[in-house]
Amino acid sequence: MKESFALYAVILAAGAGSRIAPAAGGIPKQFLCLDGEPLYLVCARKFCSVAMIRGLVIAVPPGEVSRCERETESALLPLPWRVISGGATRQASVRNALEALTAWQPQANAVLIHDAARPFVSASLITAVADALKDGSQAVIPGIPVVDTIKEIQDGRVERTPPRAALRAIQTPQGFRLDILDQVHREGVRKGLAVTDDAALIEGCGHSVQVIDGERSNIKITNPEDLRLLAAAPKVQVRTGFGYDVHRYGQGRPLKLGGVPIPGAPEVVAHSDGDVLLHALADAILGAMGASDIGTLFPDTDPALEGIESGILLIEVLQKAREARLAVTHADCTIIAQIPKIAPHQPLIKKNLCHLLGLSPTAVSVKATTEERMGFTGKKKGIKAVAVVTAAMMG
Length: 395
Ligand code: MG
Hints:
single chain
């Protein structure tokens, strides 16, 4: 029976980044952020998007393991992962990662090794390396043609000019059959070999290494001037959020909708002021943020929130949205009730929502409908509201 292809990825994020750290405020480069996420997690997410990969080992500096575990946990990666302690050198970190991988996933038989300082790696390059490995290569590395003329020098004088056409600048991810990589790492330790990439160990032990086309955009963040690549123009992401809320009619609080009192309407049962429209709207904004609901944020067991105006809750939610760099640009709301009649109050409700949200009348819609005497609203047992917001999330 043909052996199945069990591919895992190793993200190397254990370096001190000494060339770049002074310019980056002392932060090692793998912990710098791109689109709000540290580079090692940007890389991890790229590898997670490749279907052939079954899991990740992330090597970080020894003192950072538990912090990075917490950070990786909250990144909600879709593949299983382990954060492990790296070593003093890149080679030692790979060694640790291979030991951790074989102990964790004994069936692993292929591995991709990637430097966390290459956050721009594409899923197609990762796939190309993995494909070559799957097709039978023992070692696969991506390389790009060299544009500069390269000279070997000694004591400030040129020793040799190798022909440029035969040269390649080598990138990661590098892919290997796990047994061979494991074996050459052991041999490397025995022979005292010190190398800057894993392929060099393979070559040093006499195995062949396949080179495939790399990508010019797969840049390694190395020097202070590379920091500008991470500070590229802020990206704006369009977000949508949906909110839904219900309140029962009964002895409780005078009905308010969108912060507007509705005289003569049934009362609603609620811990806060029971403004079903503002609750739906607040939930829609929280939805656009990727956050939880207002019930979680403002529990109805909190005595401080007894009878609180929902406008205050909405302002707090908007403050949280601002902190998350989210700006609400449009809100579309529908109130669903048999009673009271909403139409007479609609202009004031809309005006109030525009004020609360800081939006123009063309960016806010307040609509109303009945449910044709069906269901709990039709039976006049309660009221509901739905809201959809559109928002811009600044990268
Ligand atoms: Mg509610």
